[in-house]
Amino acid sequence: MGDYFFSSRPAYPWSTYPLGLPALAAVAVLLVLFTVWTYLGHPQANRRRVFLILALRVLALLVALITAVRPSVGVNENPKQPSTLILGIDVSESLTVKDELGGQSRADAVRKALEKCQPLFDELLTEQGISVALYKFGAADFNEATGRYDPTTAFDAKRSDYGAFLNRTYDRWQAERVRGLVVVGDGANNGEAYAPDAEAGRWGRRGVPVHTAVVGKDTSSDAKDVAVTGVECNPSPAFIKAEFTATAKVNAYNFVGSRVTARLFINDSPVESKEFTLDREKGNELKLTTKAPETKGEYKIKVEVGTPRGDKLEALPGELSALNNHSETYLTVQKEGVRVLIVDQLRWEETFIRDALRNEKRFDVYEVIRQTDATVTDGERKLLSLDAQAYDVVIIGNVNAGHLRRAAPNFLDELTRLSATKGLGVMFLGGEYAFDGIPTDLLPVTGGRVVDALSPTGDPLVSFPAVPNPNGLSKMFKFAPAPGTPASKVVPAKDAWNRMNNFRTGELLNGHNRITPRPGGLDTVFAWTARLDKDAFDRERRILVTPNDPSAIGAGTEFDPAVHEPLLVGSQRGDASKGRWLAFGAFDTYLWRGLGLPKERLGIDLHERFWRQCVLWLAHQDEEESQAYARPQFRQMKVTGEQTVRVGLKKADGTDDPNAPLAVRILPLAPGQLEPKPEDEKRAAPLTVLADRDGRKVLFRPPVPGEYFVSVTSPVTTPDGKVEKNPDGTDKLHRGTAKFIAVPDVSDEMLRVSADPEFMRRLAEPNGGRALRVEELSGFLKELKVEAPPDLGKKPRYYPDWNRNRSRGFLPFWLVVFVTLLGIEWGLRRLWGMV
């Protein structure tokens, strides 16, 4: 019988194999014999009465036996499970073109086809359990929740983004049973975010066929136009003086094969020009590569396309409009960390300075080890070529001018020139060879002999403090504890350096080079040490004796040339004072690392923080720590889209502070305006800051086209958590800014209005679907209505069904039959006097 079979499910104990059913049969036979024996000898019995009584008893017994055995006829059925048929209707402007039968518009043809299909939608639900979900789509911001189609929908969308529709509906329906997906439209796709073929392929791989129903003809006349639809920069952000590529996306409607010139502008100044051939109607990518500016900041990038006429670019002959022949975006240019060169002897001081810098990812450290007159390798010679390496900071250790010139004859001359013209930072360290012969243009101060006090065996007899004055505490000697340090163990910078200089428990220097600043206050002293005069030290305690009590030496004490020796001196010089230099008389700061060991790492943190701050100050990046930032996802976007701006506040170690309070404002800029007025920024309401696994962000939809300015502020706090104040009493704020451009969502619909049946076929046929005309849609639904659903696994159905949860009234009926038979039998016996 194929899908039919017999089934029985005897009740216990008759279900016991193999004796259950034979025992039930034996009981049935005995009951019949007992019934016959009972009535054959009754005085009121005759043959007819006994036959009737016996028949009723046997029928009741048969009902009981059937109930015990529970036989059924089983039928294997393919279950009718609910599913959904998705229909997407293109409601873009191109469907208003009147090229359908009788001069009707494509939109009217779609409406009539859907009206004809409406009864079939109801039949699909009734007969196959298929519900129909009707969507409208057009722009890239298609939303499944709000994109339902109804007969009153206007066909006025500015785009035909088939990829966005396929992508968003897949995300919505991927976990549910979908019978098929039908896309209705003219196929004039002009979406940019998603590739329709790839999105349709996702549906096909999931086993959901993609069908298409095309409307319109492919012979309509199209306009001629070249349109720059957007500009992207890679990398973004870009690094100072590094190359970046601006990619302009260009559509060439009826200009395929044309030669054009693309010109790149940075802040409205032309920097690059190149010729291209427009090989495709859509999606031409014109790439222009140039170097980023020499200073960090926000730069407007523009790409213009056209035919050169003198110094200008004009529209191609026959273009519909020249207004869309350019596009703009913004590029952030920033420092590529800090490139540092250390030239020194191989000694503990150099080793620990190098390690302190390399332990933080923002520092890119190179070293050239000069053991007096050692031979120079090709690799070292390359590293000493300053113009080629573009260092930010050069540190000169315990080597003299002769050592440096023998290694690279022009090294000191290049260093002098770059420090004055390019802002290259230079630092000189102490040692027996230090400062010797260095040109005064490069090292304005005088570096002298080593100052120390040694025993006959060469052991130091006295230690020297490194005391930061207020200038030093605010710059090189400012201190932040390592990430994760409990608040209860945070030590203010002043207290930390006082602990370092404590003559009993601190870690002091064994000596230093004497530095003589220039007269007239041209140089800034950032730290000092106690002066060593003849016998002016306490040999027992091994500390210097100053006019003040040595134990009272405290960080933050102003430098007094009468009683102190300069230890760290520096200033700015060169073009716009861009060049910074430091002269540091110490040569064994690695001793600082021992403070607090082994219980705590305060000394290690102070040492590493000091050297990092020195390098950051020299590179003009000392104020970039703990900075607020704003990073827009799109530097150019359609005005109808949603912008995501990543925001945050960097801690001293370069990581984000997840608890920093942030105020984020986004304001439109007037034409030619670089920043909003301060009063306008204060009046603007802060946006809501959201958090996700990637950090913090704000969401923003630009209401009108134009340039927008993003401002992120956060209060500057002291180590104890208090907000710092400006001189006028207002809160001191970290501030980060960014810009982006919102461009009009100019419709491409009426530039290219020909229907594209080939595009619709590519969506359907590779993914198990059929490519139809819109008038064939109703016939397709009729076929679907009678088509067997996919084999989801056969499910048996039993007749009768003895399961009380699925009996549908059979069991109560069966009980009534049994009781009726017994009742009639008992009634007849009573009537005939056989009771």
From TrEMBL:
- Keywords annotated in UniProt: Membrane, Transmembrane, Transmembrane helix
Superkingdom classification of source = Bacteria
Return the Gene3D superfamilies for the record: 3.40.50.880, von Willebrand factor, type A domain
Which residue windows are transmembrane per the record?
20-39, 51-69, 810-828
| Keyword Acetylation carried by entry | no
- SUPFAM superfamilies, sorted: Class I glutamine amidotransferase-like, vWA-like
Asked if Iron is a keyword of the record, the answer is no
Kindly provide the name given to this protein in its UniProt entry: Glutamine amidotransferase domain-containing protein
Its source organism is: Gemmata obscuriglobus
